[in-house]
Each structure stands twice: as structure tokens, then as C-alpha cells.
Amino acid sequence: MYILINGSQKNHKSNSRYFLDYISKYLDDYTIYDLKYDFFDNIIDSIINTDTIVLAFPLYVDSPNSLTLKLLNYIYDNNIDLSNKSLYVIINCGFREGIHNITALNIIKNWATKVNIKYSGSILVGAGEIVGKEEYSYITSIAINKLKKFGRCIKDNKECNDIITTMDLLTNRIYCMFANHSWTKKGKINNLTKKDLKIK
Amino acid sequence: MKTIIHDLEHLDKELFNISDNDVIINANGCSNSCIGCFSCWIKHPKVCIYKDEYSNITDSLKNSDELIIISKNRFGCYSESVKRVLERCIGYVLPYFTIRDKHIHHASRYDKKINLITYFYGDITNQDLECLDSLVKANSINLNASSYEVKILEGKVINNVYTD
Lengths: 200, 164
Fold this sequence. Notes:
Number of helices of chain A: 8
Largest sheet of chain B: 6 strands, mixed
Number of domains of chain B: 1
Oligomer: heterodimer
Radius of gyration of chain A: 17 Å
CATH architecture of chain B: 3-Layer(aba) Sandwich
Strand content of chain B: 25-35%
Shape of chain B: globular
CATH class of the largest domain in chain A: Alpha Beta
Mean pLDDT of chain B: 95
Radius of gyration of chain B: 15 Å
CATH topology of chain B: Rossmann fold
Strand content of chain A: 15-25%
CATH class of chain B: Alpha Beta
Distance between the termini of chain A: 51 Å
Helix content of chain A: 40-55%
CATH superfamily of chain B: Flavodoxin domain
Low-confidence stretches of chain B: none
Order of helices and strands of chain B: EEHHEHEEEHEE
Largest interface: A-B, 48 and 44 residues
């Protein structure tokens, strides 16, 4: 039995949820929980009764988001026994390079040691906003292939090395150009110019 | 002027050299988490969508030379309450990206650079310390801070751990 936990504070359309849905294609017996919407006690009960946990969350201020921290704190503070369970982690960020997620991953690994759960691997997704949208399938194919590999690892209950995905088909400069254009476009929807968005 | 974000029950102003001009933000009252709506970037720049005492911290930071964060250590990270406040400060930087040291980061909204000084308390292992250093360093890069410091608080004793 696999428990997949979406730690995103956004909603069901979050990229973290997208990655969990994608991974779930490889698993037979699983339940996906949204930390924001599902009953916290139910999630804790399911964690206690499972063998494998897949935790997905977005990078907020270089670390796990506060909703995910709430779960980590609760488990640690209540001495919930997680020994003999495996933990897989999916972290995504809006930056092009997945390497930005390493600090958050190290915090999770540190927590895993303290609560005696077996850390089994991770995928650190860069450009999460793009990889989580199927319409960009050509430029996200490398990241999606790595996600598939990660899914198969979880299915086989194998330990896997930490996988880092970066939007390799775009250079930093081009990625910035596209992303910045997209922010200006989002501002325009709210009748704000680029100058308005940059207000001091 | 300084902005102080903390999760202490009692803040010892003398210990942290806090004056009456400084802005003190007690994170323990922050119950609303960032919902990732990006309103503070693309709808009402700088201002959080939640209307409470934490909705406009960006302006405090704008006027500050130093951001002081005092937090309980949680596995090498900030406490949940301090983290909630920090997540609601992202309007301090722009949604736009820039390249710094060959990596992508958010561009600065302001020209002025702040010093980031952090104090952590509670049980802290060497592993925690390594995480805290890399976290604060990453924060300082993304905030485009001029410097960062990680300090450990044991009672009223402050130990410097990392400075850059």
C-alpha cells in the first residue's frame, strides 16, 4: 500500500499533485491525500498503516512549504513510529534548475533520520510550472522520462539515487526571457503593466 | 532600521539590540499560509491577499537595513510559524527572473541590499547546522542580501556559526 501526499498549499491543480498523479500510474494499491483538503487525522492514520510514503511539495523560500512542515513537525513531536517504512520525495520549483531543491531535500533527509524512516530516493524537478503542464510535452520530455524512471523505482520498492531535472533544452537566458514574458502577460490580465509589477 | 521576525514567547529587546524604531513581527499570530496565488506579484504587487497584520511586510523590509529572523530550529529549517511569515514576504522580490552566479533567481524589487541575520534556538545537531547554513545562504542569495549570518541562541548566549 502506497500513501502519496500532496503537500502543496495551492489546490488540486498544483504541480505537486500532477507529479503524484503521474507516479500513481505505476502503482496498484495507493491513496493520494491533499494535505490542504483531507482530514489531517486520516492522513496520519494512513501513514501509520502504510509501508511506503511518497511526499510531494513545492519549494517555498528555499525549503519545504509551511504546510509540509506542519506534517513533519506533527510526526516528530508525537513520536510516530515510522521505522520499517520507506520515504520517496518529489520537490518542484519554478526555477529552471532542479538543483535549487537540494537544501529542502537535505532538510527532509535530516527529518527522516530523526523519525527513523528509510529514505529511499527523490526527484528534484526544475521548471515545475512547465513540467507540470502537459501542453509543453516536447521540452519537458527529458524531465518526464526521469519521472517515469522514478515511478518504476517506487513500484519496485528500490532505493534510487536523487534525480535532478533541469530544463536542458532551454538556456538560462532563454528560460528567463520566456518566464519573464509570462509574468508580464499575467500582470496584463489584471490590467497591470510591467512597470506596475515592478513598483517599489 | 531593522525588521525582526520571531517566534519567541518573550522577545528580549536588549539581547538583540532592538530599538523603538524597529519593526517587530511575532510569527506566532500568523495563521494564514501563503496559498501560492501570486497576487502579491501580479495583482496587488507587494501586498499579500490576506488582510491581516502580515499583509504588508514588504514595506517594512524596504525601509530596513537588516532582516533579523529568530526561530526555533526544526530539522535544520525555520519553525512553521516563521516559515508562514517568510512565505508571505515574497513580494519583496519580483516575479521576474534574473541570473546570478550562473543560476536563476528572482530579481530584486529594490536597489538597497539588506543584511540577513538569523538566530536559531532549541536542540541543534551538527546535521541541523549544516542545513541551517545552506538554507540561510540560499535565502540571502534569493533576497539579494549583502551578507548573512547564522547564530545559535542558548539562553542569553549567542554563538556565531556562519558568516558570509
